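Deliverable D5.2: sample structural annotation.
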Amino acid sequence: MSLSALIFDVDGTLAETEQWHRQAFNLAFMDMDLDWIWDHALYLELLSVTGGKERMRHYASLHDRDFLANPDIGQRIVSLHRNKTNHYARLISSGEVKLRPGIERLINEAKDNQLKLAISTTTTRDNVVNLLTATLGKNGPTMFDAISAADSAEHKKPAPDVYFDTLRKLKIRPDQCLTFEDSQNGLLSARRANIDTVVTLSDFTSCHDHMDAIAVLKNLGDPGLPCEVVRGDLDGREFVDLELLRQWRG
């Protein structure tokens, strides 16, 4: 079956955003006078829990059970997460966040070849739109035929729900697409939806298990910036292009 769509995870895949998410969480905690501080090492552990609200609940269950005992805990977490999202939007609008090597080139190549493009993530839709706008311009979000985000799936990654939603929106089968992920949870989610997956390791996921990916790379590469291969065959290329993806897809 020919390749007709490319699907992208967001955080760690499109861009190295987790450092900005971590900063935004800490700023939101300060605003609420919480003494929570998520440093790099702790955040690395917390990333095993997908979803910002779920991540905060998990942390509180381990380190601040009094916070969870508040009768309005649900509203507090929603408010905390909303404030965190606002901080994140402000941080990435600074222009310092860049797409990872090869991402914009591959998106444009896919568009030029009439492939469908989609986002499949368990971050919020606002975070997706803010990132795409900050990196691709005001028309960035409209470059994608479907955006499946946190509001699209009852169960977050590693459950396959968000990928099922993406396939439904694109009106395609799993054997008609490829997806790009950076984390073990993302890879599990895609494979449980029977979608072949290319992993591009991020700053926070280099230690994850990616044995079920069709290729594992440091990034997609660009002309003059060869990608480093962890597992896979670039067939003499220095970067990933559509022709190579079609070869990998078979």
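Annotation notes: The beta strands are 5-8, 116-120, 146-148, 177-181, 197-200, 215-217, 229-231. The domain at 18-92 is CATH 1.10.150.240 (DNA polymerase; domain 1).
The annotation will be released with the project's public dataset once the embargo ends.
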